[in-house]
Fold these 3 entries.
Entry 1:
Amino acid sequence: MFIQIIQGRCRDAEQVHRLTDEWRETMGPRAEGWLGGTYGITDDGEFVAVVRFESREAAARNSTRPEQGEWFDRMRQCFDGDVVFHDCDDAVMFLDGGSDDAGFVQVVQGRVSDPTAFRRFMEQPMDVLHEQRPEIIGGTIAMEPDGWFTETVAFRSEDEARAGEVKQMPEDARREWEEQMAAMTDLRYLDLHSPWFASSMRSGMGTGMGSGTGTAP
């Protein structure tokens, strides 16, 4: 699986939302390998999109479509400054991966000192997390070779997410998680209070957008 993260300072939230809906309805069905997307805008106006494709090659083929370029030209006008893209071939899902019914999504970005160890940790069974934090539906982890990562966590609701933050985990699980947190730096937490989603017929879960040339929303 290939994940691309798109971020930028948004100055027209309504138009961004309309354009992502337009892409899903008119171009998404013909986008080879597109699986889905999770989108949102933070309180301070930062747009975040997390896009899943079956492969980097499928995403690249989509970016060459003329209609894709025209669409992205319109999307770019909704931003102040540059739109930043992160392409991640190293991507995994955890728990149920996510859901188009999620009421709140938190995006966590930062850097890990040992990407291989972090991936192993995220791929292990998460029965304890599921039992202790049932409000967490699931999410994705996308990493670049230098350890920079973006994690999306889908929650049933923001109220449940905030209540769950203060719960005490069992000692072993807490210690293991604290060890992983100690290996992270430059952490940022981006709260998407009103996320929206798009899903392909090929995907059972909505989390996806495009390439440096505007691959897809």
Entry 2:
Amino acid sequence: MDTQQNTALTRALAEVPGPLPARGVIHIVIPHTDRFTVVGNHLAQHPGLSTAAVSFAVRIQSLPQGTEIGVKALAARFPEGEKLIAAALRELEAIGYLQRARTRLPDGRIVTRTVFCNQPAALLWPRKTAPHQPATPQAPAPAPTPQPGPALPPQPQPVPEPEPTLQPVQVLAAAPQPVHVPAAAPEPEAPLATPPPCAPAPPPQQSAAPLFVPLVPTPTAPKPPPRPLPQPRELTPELHRAATALLADLRRHTPEFTLSEYDLQQLAPAVAAWLEREARPDAIRHALTNDPPHPLRHPAKLLRHRLTALLPPPLPGAHDLTVHVRRVTITPFQTCDGCERAFRSSTPGRCRDCRTDHEQAAA
């Protein structure tokens, strides 16, 4: 039988806008109308969360309010085991999507409330309701300005000329009059009255918009000074010559470590400190040139760092390697000359009882 063709899929691919990619995933986006949950890419593509943690975050986010999301409750609802669920919840709690807080109820009981936030990074941002609160009382303030109050004074001006007593009646009759002649006058006045209150309103909102708390604060504290190069206890001419020769010989083994004469003079005391601690030249060469970064732009800075950070300790002396054993003196047994009993003493003689009896008899 031939392979069945999915005509619906072919029709959907034909409706995808733009040219289709030659490789990779092709998205067919059909808008949801009911039973859907919005999940941000910060969660779906989080590099620090496992696939199990992301899946349980989506499942928890899709559950209705008040649903139990403990380990036992999720294990009863989904096929995963309790260990996997507990590990996923710990990952979500470490990132900030899940939080557990112990609260005391009015009746005195202490319960644990589990809170899930679909975007924990937004909790660090300033709330948008605070900057807009002063804008709400300003909205009714410009309302009285476009009010027809200033437009009405030109209407009663022609009214008192024919009859001052018919003013209330002519107020009603004057309504159609501004439609023909004075209608053009209030139209330019209305836009002139409305812009002044609206123009100053945006500046305070724009000034409050930059109030953003960055997730990663910029480093403002000064960096600590670099560690000084190690110095030998006594820089003898022979030690300085051997250190300079070792540094100059590095380019023969690794061409990237070609140093200038100034760099040789600056780094030679540090190499002399290594040689003074009885480090072998081949060991020093391997420690300084092993696995350099590519490309190596500043070989002298790399050597300075490695000479300082990888400085070996001095070799211990012979007395440092000896183990001091605590000697325990054992008192030998002696036979009492009086009662023939055994007792511990460094010299032969009588036991304590015989010595006491002998002293009493002599007294």
Entry 3:
Amino acid sequence: MTPASGPPRSLPTELHSYLQELLRRTRAVCGDHLAGVLAVGSLALGDYRHGRSDIDLTVVVEPSLPGSAPHDLADTLAHSALPCPAAGLELVVYGADFARRPSGEAGYLLDLNTGPSLPDRADTDPARSPAFWYVIDRSIAHHTGLPLLGGPARDLVATPDHRDVLAAVRASVVEHSGGEGHLADNRVLNGCRAVVFCRTGRWVAKRTAAREIAAAEERFRPLVDAAVHSFERPRALAVALPDADVRAFLGWVRERVEEAARAAGA
């Protein structure tokens, strides 16, 4: 495994000391069983906004990792033990034997959410979670993951089959259509990213996707622009968006995802 040398310079300076300590603690718990750590989401895509974005990390460990290690890792990385400077930490641990093969399952060893803006969650039973978020995250990790420890992202995490990814994107749009637990701006921007992925096969930052959709779909431009404006504010200052407009947009997004799924035979 590549030795720790500190967070890459491309990551926000506000996170350097936190990530350095997080990596140290992760190595202390996992030892030689640690295969790699990837930054994913906004950190990898260059769209992190301090006070709004989460720190999204994918950790891959060898199957020989002791069974108590995921619980120990959750304890040492909890916000109460290591205060998170971002809105939250979303860290998912996978076994290397699972992560290195395509799968449409959740498959994690640990799903940790912690931080000032996230409800604490440390789950080790993937059967309790909808698989779609993890399928999408592994696809993003494979294509855009930024190594913090270990080798290239493509060597650590396989992307799920395209049909499984499209099914997961469809499920995520349904989830956002309900609205419960999600900010309106994030629902819109995730919808933009879903359409761009379906049209191009590329995972891009939410605001990049928003610019592409606003340029191509004039009728949705005011809503998308308003979502971007809100997304650039801290979560507590997010701007309310017209719910009827958000639902209409997500209905259109779902139709685009369904078209892509049919074309792929999903």
